[in-house]
Specification:
Blueprint (H helix, E strand, L loop, with lengths): L3 E5 L4 H5 L3 H9 L3 E4 L4 H13 L4 E5 L2 H15 L6 E4 L7 H5 L7 H13 L6 E9 L2 E3 L1 E5 H10 L6 H17 L3 H5 L3 E2 L1 E4 L2 E2 L4 E2 L1 E5 L21 E6 L3 H6 L1 H6 L8 E6 L2 E13 L2 E19 L2
Parallel strand pairs: 1-2, 1-3, 3-4
Antiparallel strand pairs: 5-6, 5-16, 7-12, 7-15, 8-11, 9-10, 9-15, 12-13, 13-14, 15-16
Length: 309
């Protein structure tokens, strides 16, 4: 049995900025594992197959939230119902939202890699946390959104360097836009046309400004908006419906601390199956990666264990 398999995303912003990290991680891992550098999704699938075949105990994710989404999708597909390896976030991303939400192991990429090796050297057990993931059209991740959320992500990636400062700038600009009534906030809340069925029951709306779900409460910048996300392993927490910018602004504190926001026209529920259909492709995000489909099916995914320390 092999121990640690590090999957290094060479295209992540941090890894492109600091390319020497790859050689440093390889030096640290040494005989305790392998560093994989897939250059395509096909190669990533092959890496997941090798990790299963050689019984790696730990998979280290060296990239951001999108990298984690792509890696766990391949691992879940390849392992099927077998026992998954432990996942360790090396915090190689810009925001590291998922690692933060799961109280993941702290430190730099190099520091976390050293911690993983030292635990094996001295046979120290890891502290872990188990959390479900979301299943979105057969892809797996922690955060899903369309409407407001996908519009927000488009603005986040549009010009400038993505990161916490850029995210805060969008929020402040949206608040100012709502107050002085410019078009900026309208772009964020531009509704989508869709049919939404939750556990077999069709919602009455045909226009949706927000459809969002998450397997973690903290969805970025310490906003615990999806406050029931971690409540049950066999259900997902969903918001779906209509909300204006002023309704969201008035509830920002509740969304930040994780209290029930009580939107008048926004369904707030736990569900086992959510079906979203539209006559035209809907743009949506999974952990920051963008997709388009005319039909989106959400359900709880499997439980996976993440290393905390």
């Amino acid at each position: 049995m092999k121990t640690i398999g590090i999957i290094h995303n060479p295209r992540s912003k941090k890894n492109m900025k600091y390319p020497h990290i790859l050689d440093m991680v390889r030096d640290i891992i040494g005989r305790y594992g392998t560093v994989f550098v897939p250059s395509s999704y096909e190669e990533l699938t092959e890496v997941a197959q090798e990790i299963k075949k050689d019984h790696y105990e730990i998979v280290g994710v060296n990239g951001g939230d999108g990298t984690n989404h792509q890696i766990i999708t391949r691992i879940i597909d390849v392992y099927n119902d077998d026992r998954f390896p432990l996942i360790a976030h090396l915090r190689g991303g810009t925001m590291n939202t998922i690692s933060n939400a799961l109280n993941g192991i702290t430190g730099s990429v190099i520091g976390i890699t050293q911690k993983l090796v030292e635990h094996y050297k001295y046979d120290r057990p890891f502290k872990t946390r188990t959390n479900k993931v979301l299943n979105i059209n057969g892809r797996y991740g922690f955060m899903f959104g369309t409407g407001f959320v996908s519009n927000l992500m488009d603005l986040y990636y549009e010009g400038g360097d993505p990161g916490p400062i850029k995210a805060l700038q969008i929020i402040y600009k949206a608040i100012a836009s709502a107050i002085i009534r410019t078009d900026y906030v309208d772009r964020l809340f531009n509704p989508i046309m869709a049919e939404v069925i939750i556990d077999g029951l069709k919602l009455d709306y045909s226009r949706y400004s927000i459809i969002v779900s998450s397997a973690i409460r903290n969805v970025g910048l310490n906003f615990r908006a999806i406050y029931r996300a971690e409540e049950l392993p066999d259900k997902i927490h969903l918001f779906a419906g209509q909300a204006t910018a002023f309704e969201v602004i008035r509830r920002l504190r509740k969304l930040y601390v994780g209290r029930q926001p009580n939107f008048k026209h926004l369904v707030d529920t736990l569900a086992r199956l959510v079906e979203i259909t539209s006559s035209s492709p809907l743009r949506y995000t999974i952990d920051g990666d963008m997709y388009e489909d005319t039909r989106i099916v959400l359900s709880p995914g499997p439980l996976m264990s993440y290393i905390q320390e």
